[in-house]
Amino acid sequence: MALIGDKEYFKGIGEIKFEGKDSDNPLAYKWYNPEQVVAGKKMSEHFKFAIAYWHTFCGQGADPFGPGTQNFEWDRPSDPVEAAKAKADAAFEFITKMGVDYFCFHDFDLIQEADTFVESEKRLATIVEYIKGKQAESGVKLLWGTANCFSNPRYMNGASTNPDFNVLARAGGQIKLALDATMELNGENYVFWGGREGYMSLLNTDIKRELDHMGKFLGMARDYARSQGFKGNFFIEPKPMEPMKHQYDFDSATVVGFLNEYGLQDDFKLNLEFNHATLANHTMQHEMEVAAAHGMLGSLDANRGDYQNGWDTDQFPNNITEVTEAMLTFLKAGGLQGGGINFDAKIRRNSTDLDDVFHAHIGGMDTFARALVTADKIITSSPYEEMRAKRYSSFDSGKGKDFEDGKLSFKDLYDIAHENGELELQSGKQELFENIISQYI
Ligand code: XLS
Ligand code: NI
Ligand code: NI
Can you tell me which residues bind Mg(2+) 1 (predicted)? Predict the structure, then answer.
């Protein structure tokens, strides 16, 4: 069913279908087959792909050196409410044609923020009502909502970590409305990305006080949403820097520690992003492993960085090795805790055709599908699992098992060391592990 209002924005492009890897139709899926069962679940259920409202329908390709290049038809109405409705029409047409089930938004992606808080609240209510109708018509669901508490100049020193209480309170007011909008649209989760929660200079910053404020603020937001009946997950999205010099939600390990410190660990999980991982000098697989080890692998923002520069370039994923490694962790963790895979990615500034945004998402979804199938084969039919298990086999019985069971004293370790004498080296077999990944791709 193609959902097309009075106006069709993506003319000449119909629904994107799965045609298999031998198809040379650029507007077809080669690997992503929503119905295909992998590791006991349909691909569409594994992934819960989502389209990011901000990049795909708000971003126009501007960069620090020049204005946008992508002035599409839905950007043209001058009245903010008309513009927001046109954008919603274009968004739902695109999402439906892609056959994707979910979208994600920031409050003021949906509609332009007004000059006053009161007027912004009214605008938001109007567009939420409109989008509710679009959802009912199309069946498209909301993976998560969030608030943009980083673009407006009032947040230049942070939102919940702002040294000025009145800015913190304003952020609270704004996030209350974003939570309400998320609940109204049946959002399955709510994301906090601390865009300016961090510092530019330590000379003017009290880290301890700011972290305490953020911890308290997040707890209050959670309590409010729970009191309104929100059952979904809260996610924190780590990123080490940009826009701030340093951001408090630096990486998975930092955020896990923070959540435990402030008593947020039962309601909050992590939304991890590939490009943020690389900015933190980690691989995405590392970030996912750390989150999974704490039962906090919540959701993923799919994209990739540029390996030759250090920016958050938010390119569409196409690195099959990188995504396959991520999918190994994904499958072994039993998937995501409530989240899905949101394309937090944008087409390049010089990609100016309407079909470019289709090619971008098709490529990204195919990369994930191919990586999932590959990771599943590696787990089920290669020696990979056995090789990993073998490395730890000395803990499966005898003294190693006693150690794991807490039956040995430190003095026992000394006695065992004495008895063993000098040890043979045990190879880590890294190159063989790497070859298995390549072989199965
Ligand atoms: C920016 C973040 C942002 C979050 C949502 O780098 O990735 O887009 O995903 O606020
Ligand atoms: Ni990002
Ligand atoms: Ni993101």
Answer: 237, 273, 301, 344
